[in-house]
Amino acid sequence: MSDTTDTNATDADDVALEVDAGEVASATDNSNATQRLRGQTDEGAQKLTLSEKELVLTGAPWPEDDLGDTMLINMGPQHPSTHGVLRIMMELDAEEVVRAKPVIGYLHTGMEKTAEELTYVQGCTNVTRMDYASPLSNELVFCMAVEQLLDIEGPERAQWMRMMLCELNRISSHLLFQATNGMDIGAVSMMIYGWREREESLRLLEKITGLRMNHNFIRVGGTAADLPDGWQRDTLETLAKIERGVHEYDELLSENPIWKSRLLGLGIISTQECLDLSITGPILRSTGFAWDLRKAQPYLKYDEVDFDVVYTTNGDVYDRWRIRLEEIFESIKIVRQCVEMMPTGDYRTQDAKITPPPRARIDESMEALIHHFKLFTEGFKVPAGETYAALESPRGEIGCYMVSDGSAKPLRMHIRGPSFYNLQSMGPMVRNALVADAVAIVSSVDPIMGEVDR
Amino acid sequence: MRFLFSAGDPLFDEAFDFMSMMTVVVLLKVVVAFVVLLVSVMLYIWGMRKWIADMQNRVGPANAGPAGVLQTLADGIKLFFKEQSIPDSADRPIFRLAPYLSILPAFLMFCVVPIGGEVEILGRKTYLQVAELPIGAMFILACSGIAVYGVMLAGWSSGSKYPLLGAVRASAQVLSYEAAFGLGMLAVLMRAGTLSTREIVNQQQWVGMESLVRDWFLLPAFLGFAIFILAAIAETNHPPFDFVEAEQELVGGFVTEYTGIRFAIFFLAEFMNIITMSAVATTLFLGGPSGPAIWPDRFGAGGWVNGTVVPVLWFVAKVLLLTFCTVWIRASLPRLRYDQLMALGWKWLIELAVLFVLYVIVDEVAQAEGWNRAIAIPLALVGGIAAYGVLYLCMPKRGETVEEFR
């Protein structure tokens, strides 16, 4: 069912990409099979993109004469299974979805615009609220962009800490997915189990960063604080608990006949469609394209740890669920290596222009006081230029495009939220599915509306 | 008159007299049965929440009363005092009527279930059972059939789309499973040769451990039991077949537009249905109140302990076991998809039930006529499968339209 590219850290990229190329070729060549699987003709596919384009772009009402015996139904923004405030307009023929159109914007808070009013010091507080299920990825991508503009790199320990925190965050995010996905398919106990293990991971994150979510822990030049005493023991204990729990989910659901009959072969999407729609993350990997930025363009210290990119070839809901389940094990593997290999040293850069002085120094040093005051009033200036930083969040490629005009605030900041792009896959996937399937499919996309609307 | 009311009940051995203790006893039984059912629903909901909480590493209701046992009562009182809204597009009289239509069959079905043996109330002998109908089993079928009206009319009269989808699902689901439900029961009725629930229970009386395999209809009608349980779960809209109110798909399904006490009544009806179905299954397959006497040396085989109290306890224990199984299912299984439920009902359950009924008929006739069952039963099954084969060949093939077929 789920294959993993079994590679070592050194030649990981090559092997992974070789496998990709083969898979992509077979997926595109075999387009007839893909169409058959999706049960559509060319005509249907074309009509879908046209109508979606029309409707999304113009916001036009659904054409009256086109309706016939179908019923329009509005799912969300207040609906138990739309993951926040996603709204889906669905045209139903009995229970079959003829067309579906996601309507977004109900959680729009203008964070990208807000970023232009905040200094680079304050920026992390803003971006961490976008993808609230994996806030550390957002902070990291913001900091990576700023550090690229500053042309600095945090100390070794900071890099390893960041990597460990991001993987812990990936675990908690995937656990959240396990919970909500189970709930959406009616496995009510799964929701509580998922939450149980997620609570463990959040407790650990709270111990390290001080907060359960919206940590604001990864800062430009390093992290906000060092790891607390006894973090190795706590981390390993938490990982053991989570591992036990995830094995339980595996036992509970993987071979469950109802679970399989519901999910296998549902919501199939091809590699080509994913690439056309800029879809990344588990959805892309489920189609046989083992694209993971941690391997493809390693950042932090991902090239020094040993882990596998999980990918499958069916591109259905079951595969996406399975991939996220297996990725938890991979992340656990990475965190264990981080615990082993964590270097000693500074956890933030010693450049006094970027890093605020320790509290004790302010009482005894005039320079420290001035630096502190300047950093928290006007911030630090960043050389003019533009940059794009990207990394693999639990949902796919999260990117930060940043333009600086040389002042202490970004001229423009744009976040490429993977949920926003991934949500586009919903339209093609729910065609000809039943209402219950549509819910499962939306759930398998795992959109976080905070990131979609930003 | 006697036939109309209750044939077997010794209460009506004398001529019917309206102005007598007879009426009082009947009314008393009705009221007590209703109250008992309401209280048991309250306890069931509490037990369900506690059991599920245990399975999910939670505490469950804990604050209202000892161990939260009064939580359901508190919820009921809260809902009773809440505002009841009716949508503008609703069909108002039917919208108001629907909750009561759904609770009535659940209670009526319980009326024919024998809870215990014969007792004396106010100087009159009577059965521990509200009504002993000569057609009890038919009555159960009829009630489970009309139970869908409440749900269907509620969804339809709400004048809103999600309830409408719920209503359509409900009517299709209950109609589909009614057949399997009836055929599952038919196996027992064939074995027992009667429609009276009291008579069915009497045939399953406890004479020793061998009753478990010989007298109870659990094993003689094993496939009927499995089919009956599956169909009953589907009929009561219980997970994993709870499409009618599938929260993740249809928000609240048919109850989406309901508020206050009307909403509560729907849920009362739903849980009452589960208890009633468990009671019916106990009656038909698990021997109803029959079970070994407790300490017969001390209390005697009859008497008020082993004649009155212990049978009731056995009945309650069996119902409790079945309801616990429903909770277990609720906690552990994901929901099926609607078309999968239909496929299961039409393509498997009904066929299996028909074959099993055929088997029971042949078995019974062979016993009565003294045929060799080792020959008769396989022959009959081969005949049945051959008949299926012929029917299958006559049917349109997959993907063939009706016109092509003709």
The CATH class name of chain A reads Mainly Alpha
What is the overall number of helices of chain A?
Answer: 20
How does the major sheet of chain B shape up?
2 strands, antiparallel
Overall morphology of chain A:
globular
Corresponding CATH architecture of chain A: Orthogonal Bundle
Backbone CA Rg of chain B: 23 Å
**Percent helix range of chain B:** 55-70%
pLDDT under 50 segments of chain B (min length 5)?
none
Oligomer: heterodimer
Major sheet details of chain A: 3 strands, antiparallel
Strand order of the largest sheet of chain A: 2-3-4
Structure class of chain B = mainly alpha
Order of helices and strands of chain A: EHHHEEEHHHHHEEHHHHHEHHHEEEHHHH
Strand order of the largest sheet of chain B: 1-2
Poorly predicted regions of chain A are 1-54
CATH homologous superfamily heading of chain A: Cytochrome-c3 Hydrogenase, chain B
The shape of chain B, in one word, is globular
The overall pLDDT of chain A, averaged over residues, is: 82
- Write down the CATH topology of chain A: Cytochrome-c3 Hydrogenase, chain B
Question: In what range is the share of β-strand residues of chain B?
Answer: under 5%
Please, could you describe this protein's structure?
The complex is a heterodimer of chains A (454) and B (406). Chain A has helices spanning 12-29, 31-38, 42-58, 111-115, 120-127, 135-150, 156-184, 188-209, 231-253, 257-263, 271-276, 282-285, 293-296, 317-341, 359-364, 366-377, 418-422, 426-430, 435-445, 449-453, and strands at 3-4, 71-75, 87-93, 96-103, 218-219, 222-223, 310-311, 385-393, 396-404, 410-416. Chain A has 454 residues and is mainly α. Chain A has one domain (111-452): Orthogonal Bundle (Cytochrome-c3 Hydrogenase, chain B), CATH 1.10.645.10. In chain A, the strands form four sheets. Chain A has a three-stranded antiparallel beta sheet. Chain A has a three-stranded antiparallel beta sheet with strand order 8-9-10. Chain A is globular. Helices cover 67% and strands 2% of the residues of chain B. Chain B has a two-stranded antiparallel ribbon. In chain B, a hairpin with a 2-residue loop joins strand 1 (118-121) and strand 2 (124-127). Chain B is globular, with a radius of gyration of 23 Å. Classes of the chains: A mainly alpha (454), B mainly alpha (406).
